[in-house]
Amino acid sequence: TGMRRVSAVVHNPSFVRWRRFVRTGRSLLVPRASAVTLLLILLVLAGSGVPHLAIARQATPEPADLAALIDGLTPQDGGVYGFLVHDPANGQLYASNATVPFVAASLYKLPLMAHIYKLADQGLISLYEQLVLDEWYWSEGDDSYYDHAWLGASVSINELLFAMGAWSSNVAAWALSTLVYWPDVQETAWEIGMTTGTWMFAVTPEFEAWPPPPGESDAPEAMAAAGAFVDAVYGWAPVMITNPHDIAAFFTGLLSRTVVSADASQAMLDILAQQAISDRLPALLPESAWIAHKTGNLPQVVHDAGIIVTDSGPIVVVGMSEAMPDEWAAIDAIQHLGRTVFDAFSGDGGSASRSFFPDAPNEVALRLPE
Q1: In degrees, to the nearest 5, what angle opens at C-alpha 148 toward C-alphas 144 and 149?
Q2: Distances from the Cα of 203 to the Cαs of 199, 223, 230, 301, 312, in angstroms?
Q3: CA-CA distance, 77 to 329, in Å (whole number)?
Q4: pTM exceeds cut of 0.85
Q5: How far apart are alpha carbons 358 and 370 in whole angstroms?
Q6: Taking Cα atoms as reference points, which of 13, 101, 150, 113 lies closest to residue 322?
Q7: What is the tens place of the pLDDT at every residue in 284-307?
């Protein structure tokens, strides 16, 4: 579990552990190294009619024991850090600065993605609809997925959702934003359960109370520092804000298949399981570990949040940071948060293979093509 530091936030083929098999619109995600094993499993299941494989839960760590492991990960550098660990089977087990406001960075793409699927579920758009990539979509500079050769190209909403979710493409996000009215995205975020401090294009000086009063897990000095950071960087300019509690609510909703709809939740899990930016939560995990997650980056803002499958089942893990002097220290802390949680919920080293897709808090399902 020694520190592994990735030199740049770029796609690293060594972390791409999943290959996509598509048949009649469904997919099966498997590790590249186990194709033969997969075929054998499929043959056995096809003959037996077993719909899924259940994995017995390991003992859940006590909150105090988990706190002892995680508390020491926070850098003492004057930055603001928020960590949260939620076991869907047993509830929240660890929270530090859970409702402190953080600049959302690319985590705003989670409620935006949910809202696009909501529009599709309502029949207001088709995921096969084509959008033309306009020049202003590159206003933030070079993109992680679309280079300038794509200018003027027609791209499906389906592909844009993948590019935004798995590659954090800003071009895709701006293209999809042309389909939405942002107050409606705000409503969707609240419907998901992101109700304690998620704001789309907030102007914080207009808030009745800013920064908000500290919550139960919030350090007053962290709340004050977060408010001062947002004020110093954004002032009266609109800013996307969220917090660890609300991001955990999003991923918990995906696990329970309640974000928009069961099919929409599954589609978002499929995308986030193919996350290309893997220098944080997944960086120290075993190669066989399964994770679906979303990162966020801006100057002095580093986040990663998602679902890590352990021997105890899927666990929601959120690591957020801002106002830190050293972004590498924040990346290192989030890396060790991921590994610490994995080990704490996986018994002796977490040796179980994670080639199956989480279906419910107490089991892991193998999804078969139809």
Answers
A1: 115
A2: 9, 17, 10, 19, 41
A3: 9
A4: no
A5: 18
A6: 101
A7: 999 999 999 999 999 999 999 999
